[in-house]
Amino acid sequence: MGKLDGRVVLITGAARGQGEQEARLFAAEGAKVVLADVLDDQGEALAKELGEGVARYVRLDVGREDDWAGAVAAAREAFGHVDGLVNNAGILRFNELVSTPLEEFQQIIQVNQIGAFLGIKSVAPEIEAAGGGTIVNTASYTALTGMHCVGAYAATKHAILGLTRVAAMELAAKRIRVNAVCPGAVDTPMSNPGGADAAALDAVYRKLVPLGRVGQPEEVARLALFLTSEDSSYITGQPFVIDGGWLAGVNLF
Asked: Which end of the chain, N or C, is less packed with Cβ atoms under 10 Å?
């Protein structure tokens, strides 16, 4: 018996990183997973690996409403219903605010913030029709604090917490719980595009993070599983920080 037996969960940004690990863990816990991404080769390979009766890949640009309609239709066709969503897709760019081109700022908003909004708008009616379920939004450590050179990214992650709280209030009567995960430094292709090994990353974060290391996407996946399963049945509208203690304060020694 798995924690997600009988569930059908759509996961965005599922071809790699946190989304991939969420898809793997959810499938291992009995869920049918709809893998949504724009990285077609990686997404299709993961769906094939997980198995035809377990996973379905669908191309989804989260900033396009018509793509969401297609993804929801594909999920219904493959598995009959949808009762879970993980709004995981996101992009990160490093730039000082005054040096950030408007086009770059708008691109980050389109993917991170509008993508989460469209996910809620498009999938919540499906979850309601299925009798209820869960939405997990991926925010960030930077949704609760500031950080140099990620102003656009932090702005979208603050916005996701607002969306999470309002959605939780509006959807509670429809038996839909909405929460957010707020990862700190996690070793994924988005935050580590150069592919530095874990030991090198640990050295960077040793003095910043009380636990002394970078996080792993599998750890974030386990938190997303908790918020998607009945283990969190009385929790909604909340941000859950998973950052090795980074937000608690600065290490001086």
From this structure: C
